[in-house]
Amino acid sequence: MTPGDPAALGRRDRKKQQTRAALADAALRLVDERGLDQVTVEEIADAADVSARTFFNYFSTKDDALVGDTDSDRERVLRALADVPPQVPALQAIRQALTEVVDEVQGEADLWLLRMRVVVQHPVLLARLVAGNAATEKALIEVVADRTGLSPDDTYPALVVAVGGAALRTSMVRWAASGGARSLAELVNEAFAVVGAGLPDPRTAPDAAASGQADPRV
Amino acid sequence: MTPGDPAALGRRDRKKQQTRAALADAALRLVDERGLDQVTVEEIADAADVSARTFFNYFSTKDDALVGDTDSDRERVLRALADVPPQVPALQAIRQALTEVVDEVQGEADLWLLRMRVVVQHPVLLARLVAGNAATEKALIEVVADRTGLSPDDTYPALVVAVGGAALRTSMVRWAASGGARSLAELVNEAFAVVGAGLPDPRTAPDAAASGQADPRV
DNA sequence: GGCAAGTTTGCAGCTTCTGCACCTTCGCTC
DNA sequence: GAGCGAAGGTGCAGAAGCTGCAAACTTGCC
């Protein structure tokens, strides 16, 4: 989710990333301890040892520092989706496109568990997280429309994408709630399987959750 | 969605509702014309002929005036869900619980079409709309858990609710995009039917959208 | 008419966020 | 290794969002 990556960058850019990470980290820790409104941008900046003005050079909003970078994810997901063979059904294709991002979240589990804890405690941030994904959703809808031969204005593309997003969000919240006990990928796959089975009421078909159109991978 | 209701209230409360509506209306019209950042709270208050301070007596945020009242919806939906016979499968139950609210939105179509137009153009607001529903989601999860005999911490309740929300949101956006050409209830039912069928890829099963577990009503 | 409760308003004040100008640092070239 | 241009950091001024408080005004009721 964060740039991270190899250190194949100049000292300058490395420092930038450090500062960015320091700010995001300080923001998360402070807000986790005290609550969103009990932490000012100035305090966050101080903790990261930069001026408040500099904070706004990195994040356009206090909230942004907390929810992280959605732009880089967008490209990643789109690229991944483009790589899924076109005959794969839309819902499955979306799930597969998400695996890369899911793995990355899992890889930075500490950061993300903290982030989700903070986000869940402040619905405004949850909203912001969703908002950040609005652009991603829009792009995904286009791609899905293309794959299925429908218009982006049809119900189906928007619906699959929205539902896929809901499945991912639910999984992440649950993952965080469990403190990362189960792997995120597992939870996501389970959620997509249930959705693919049409969300059967567990009383009527208590087994469907495990079957569905689950994919052996992962 | 707005209190509306009969005039079985004192002059005082009626005036309050008028002011509230005037503020929300002014906010929506101005933002629709100029964009979110080009409208100040002071301008909205002026347009509604009250002081800026009074604006904040009604809405705790500029955004709140735009997205409307989610609290009253919550109760309505919860009450409606309580009235759905417990043997109705969760997803269907949720859809039925939404009909009352859906009808009300349809009844105030002008207001809501404007609102959705504004909201769609400002993802932050869309997010806010979702955030406002966070409390509703939480409450719904409890109820669904109860109905299905699962724990609120299980995946299923959170997932059905989140997916139901996604279906509703998608439908409202599409409804607004079409300028209200088709009835919202129709779109919502269609969306729930597709979801209930497991979101089959339209290429693989091009008919499923129309069938699914659709309910004759509406 | 007059009181109690509820509403509106102005004001002071804090925080978020932006534009601008200045200064420092970095990376590169000659 | 001196020097130059670009990029990053910072301070300051100021607009806008939002809150608490206390004064003024309305309304509902006796």
Q: What structural class is derived from the secondary structure elements of chain A?
A: mainly alpha
Envelope shape of chain A: globular
Radius of gyration of chain A: 19 Å
Overall residue-averaged pLDDT value of chain A: 89
Instruction: Please report which band the strand proportion of chain A falls in: under 5%, 5-15%, 15-25%, 25-35%, 35-45% or over 45%.
Output: under 5%
| Largest sheet composition of chain A | none
Biggest interface goes to:
A-B, 50 and 49 residues
Strand-and-helix sequence of chain A, N→C?
HHHHHHHHHHH
What's the helical proportion of residues of chain A? 55-70%
Report the uncertain regions of chain A: 1-8, 208-218
Q: Give the termini distance of chain A in whole angstroms.
A: 20 Å
Q: What is the overall number of helices of chain A? A: 11
Oligomeric assembly: homodimer
Number of strands of chain A: 0
